[in-house]
Specification:
The complex is a heterodimer. Chain A is an alpha/beta fold. Helix content of chain A is 33%, strand content 28%. Classes of the chains: A alpha/beta, B mainly alpha.
Chain lengths: 258, 310
C-alpha cells in the first residue's frame, strides 16, 4: 500500500487584511509517487495550497505534514532537498545564462559560502538534458520566450533532485509540443518515484498526466481520487459552475461546454 | 601606481623617481599623504561598487544603489550635525556620519517590517525612500541654521565628497569595518544569485531569504556607511560600476561582485587622481564621479543590447 508524502490536515488559511478565508478546513493526502493535479477555477485556492505545501505560507488552523512531520519542524536545507517549486513565471532582472540559472537548483546541497563545483555543473546539465533544453545552456535567460523559460524553471527544479515537485500551472505558457514533452516528463518523474503536485485550471492537463485529481472550489476539496473518477461531467460541472460534457478520447478526457 | 606618483609636487605631473632619493619631502608626501589617500580611494570605490552590485541583486533591480535604504542621507545628516554641533572635528564627523547612516538602515528596516502590504523588497524600498526624505529635510534644516561663513561651506563641501582629509588614521578607521563587510560580500557572491530570485523561489531552494538578505544588506550598508563617513557623498559609483562589471564579465555574482570591486576601486582612484591634479585647487571627488558616472550611464543606456526590464 502506498503511503502519503504530504498530508494536509484540516487547514484553514486567510490572507492578512482579508476577511474571507481562502482555504476552509481543507483535507488532502498526496500519495507518494503520484501525479496529483489540483484542478479548479481561478481563485479556488490552488496556488495557496501549493504555497502551504512548500511551507512558504503557514495555516492559521490545521497543519501540513511532510512524511508525517509538520513542515515548520523540518530544517530549511532538508526542505530544499525534498520539496521544489516551479512557479508559473519568474521575473529575472539580470542576464544569467540558462546554465547559471539551473545551477541555482543545487543550492540546497551547498552552504551559504560554498561555490558549485564540477559535479553540480554536471547535475545542472543533466537536468537541462532531461527537459530537452541543454542546447540553451549558454543562452541569456532573458532572451528566452515565456514557454522556454517555463521549461528552464522546471530544469532548475529537477537539478534540485526533490522527492516532491510542486508545479504552479506548469504548462500555462507552453505550446502543444512543449506541453506534450513536459507532461511526458512529469509522468516519467512519477515512475522514478518523484511525487508531483501541480495546479491547473485545464482538465486536459490533468487528464494527460495526473494519476489523481483533487477538484477544488471556494477553498474546499469537492472530490479527490483517481483521475478517471474525478473527470466526470457531473463533478466538473459542480467544480466550474457551468454545464460541461466529458468525452473519452483514448485514455484522455476531452471537456466541452455549451 | 600612476595615481601614486602623479600629483602637483614637486611640479604638476609624474614625480620623477630621483626625487624620492633626493627630496625627503617628496618621500614624506608619497608615504604620508598619497599612499593612504590612494588606498582609501581604492577602498571607497570597492565598497561603493561592491555594495551597489549586491544591493541591485538583492532588490532584483538594476537601478538600486547604496543610498536607497537611507544610508547616504543618514551619513549626510550625521556629518552636518557634527559640523554644527562639534566644530567639524574630523573624527566626530566620521563617527556621527557612520552612526546616522547605520541608524538610517535600522529605521528603514523597522518601518519596512511594520508596513502591512507588499513583498519585503517593496516595503524596504518604500521605507528607505521615506527615511531618506526625513534625513534630507533634516540636512536642509541644519543648513538653514548653519553659520553661513564657515559651517555652511563645510557641510556643502563634505557633501560634495572628497579624500583631501584622509591620512593613515582615517584609513585605519575604515579598515576594521570595510574589509570584513567586503569579505562577506565576496564570500556570498554565488549565494547572491539565489537571493536575486523571488523570495518564494529562494525559499523553495532551501534558503532563509529574509535572514540571508539582511546579512548581505547589513554588510553592504556598513561598508557604504563607513566610506561615506570618511569620503562624503561619492555618487554614481554604486549605480554605474555594477552595470559595467556585468556587461564586461557576467551577471553571475561569482564574476560581477569581485569584478565590480576591482573596477570601482580603479574608477575612484582615477577620479581622485584627476581631482587633485587637474587644477591648482582640488576638484571634489563626488563631482567627478557624478560627471563620469552619469555620462557613462547615458552611454550604457544608448548602447545596443543594453536593457533594463521592469
Amino acid at each position: 500500500m502506498s503511503t502519503s508524502i504530504v498530508a494536509i490536515d484540516n487547514v484553514e488559511f486567510t490572507y492578512e487584511g482579508r476577511h474571507e478565508p481562502v482555504l476552509r478546513g481543507l483535507n488532502l493526502s498526496v500519495r507518494q509517487g503520484s501525479v496529483t493535479a489540483l484542478l479548479g477555477p481561478n481563485g479556488s485556492g490552488k496556488t495557496t495550497l501549493l504555497n502551504l505545501c512548500l511551507g512558504w505560507l503557514k495555516p492559521q488552523a490545521g497543519q501540513v505534514l511532510l512524511d508525517g512531520t509538520p513542515l515548520q519542524r523540518i530544517p530549511r536545507k532538508q526542505m530544499g532537498r525534498t520539496v521544489s517549486l516551479v512557479p508559473q513565471d519568474e521575473h529575472l532582472p539580470f542576464e544569467y545564462s540558462v546554465l547559471e540559472y539551473v545551477l541555482l537548483g543545487r543550492a540546497p546541497y551547498l552552504s551559504a559560502l560554498q561555490m558549485p563545483d564540477d559535479s553540480h555543473v554536471e547535475a545542472a546539465h543533466r537536468a537541462l538534458r532531461e527537459i530537452g533544453a541543454d542546447r540553451w545552456a549558454d543562452r541569456g535567460i532573458t532572451t528566452l520566450s515565456a514557454g522556454e523559460r517555463q521549461l528552464v524553471m522546471t530544469a532548475r527544479s529537477l537539478a534540485q533532485q526533490p522527492r516532491l515537485l510542486l508545479m504552479d500551472e506548469p504548462s500555462s505558457h507552453l505550446d502543444l509540443a512543449n506541453t506534450a514533452r513536459l507532461l511526458r516528463r512529469i509522468a516519467a518523474l512519477a515512475h522514478s518515484g518523484v511525487t508531483v503536485l501541480l495546479t491547473t485550471h485545464d482538465p486536459r492537463v490533468a487528464s494527460a498526466c495526473a494519476t489523481e485529481v483533487a477538484l477544488m472550489r471556494d477553498g474546499r476539496i469537492l472530490f479527490d481520487g483517481p483521475t478517471h473518477d474525478a473527470l466526470t461531467a457531473e463533478l466538473l460541472s459542480a467544480t466550474y459552475g457551468i454545464e460541461v460534457e466529458v468525452h473519452a478520447v483514448g485514455r484522455h478526457r476531452m471537456v466541452t461546454w455549451s | 601606481m600612476a595615481a601614486f606618483l602623479i600629483g602637483r609636487y614637486p611640479r604638476p605631473g609624474l614625480m620623477p623617481p630621483r626625487a624620492l632619493i633626493d627630496d625627503p619631502l617628496a618621500l614624506r608626501i608619497l608615504l604620508g599623504l598619497r599612499l593612504p589617500r590612494l588606498l582609501a580611494a581604492l577602498l571607497v570605490g570597492a565598497a561603493l561598487a561592491g555594495s551597489g552590485t549586491v544591493l541591485q541583486m538583492l532588490f532584483a533591480n538594476p537601478l538600486v544603489e547604496p543610498g536607497l535604504v537611507g544610508v547616504t542621507q543618514g551619513a549626510a545628516f550625521g556629518a552636518a550635525l557634527a559640523i554644527i554641533g562639534f566644530s567639524a572635528q574630523p573624527l566626530v564627523v566620521q563617527l556621527s556620519a557612520a552612526l546616522f547612516a547605520a541608524a538610517g538602515l535600522a529605521l528603514s528596516y523597522t518601518v519596512a517590517r511594520r508596513i502591512r502590504f507588499g513583498g519585503w523588497v517593496l516595503r524596504l524600498v518604500l521605507a528607505g525612500i521615506a527615511v531618506s526624505a526625513v534625513y534630507s529635510s533634516g540636512v536642509g534644516m541644519l543648513k538653514y541654521v548653519a553659520d553661513p561663513m564657515d559651517q555652511l561651506p563645510a557641510i556643502t563641501f563634505w557633501m560634495l565628497g572628497g579624500l583631501w582629509s584622509v591620512g593613515w588614521r582615517e584609513l585605519l578607521f575604515l579598515l576594521p569595518t570595510v574589509v570584513p563587510a567586503l569579505g562577506i560580500l565576496i564570500a556570498m557572491r554565488w549565494r547572491a544569485n539565489l537571493l536575486s530570485l523571488h523570495d518564494r523561489v529562494a525559499f523553495s531552494l532551501g534558503s532563509s531569504p529574509g535572514r540571508e538578505r539582511l546579512l548581505l544588506i547589513t554588510a553592504a550598508t556598513v561598508a557604504t556607511a563607513a566610506v561615506t563617513s570618511v569620503a562624503g557623498i561619492v555618487g554614481w559609483v554604486g549605480l554605474l560600476i555594477p552595470h559595467i562589471a556585468r556587461r564586461l564579465f557576467r551577471a553571475d555574482g561569482r564574476w560581477s561582485i569581485p569584478m565590480s570591486l576591482v573596477i570601482g576601486a580603479v574608477f575612484v582612484a582615477f577620479c581622485d587622481m584627476l581631482g587633485r591634479t587637474l587644477l591648482a585647487g582640488e576638484i571634489p571627488l563626488g563631482i567627478l564621479t557624478s560627471l563620469f558616472g552619469a555620462v557613462g550611464f547615458i552611454g550604457l543606456l544608448l548602447r545596443p543590447g543594453f536593457r533594463i526590464e521592469r
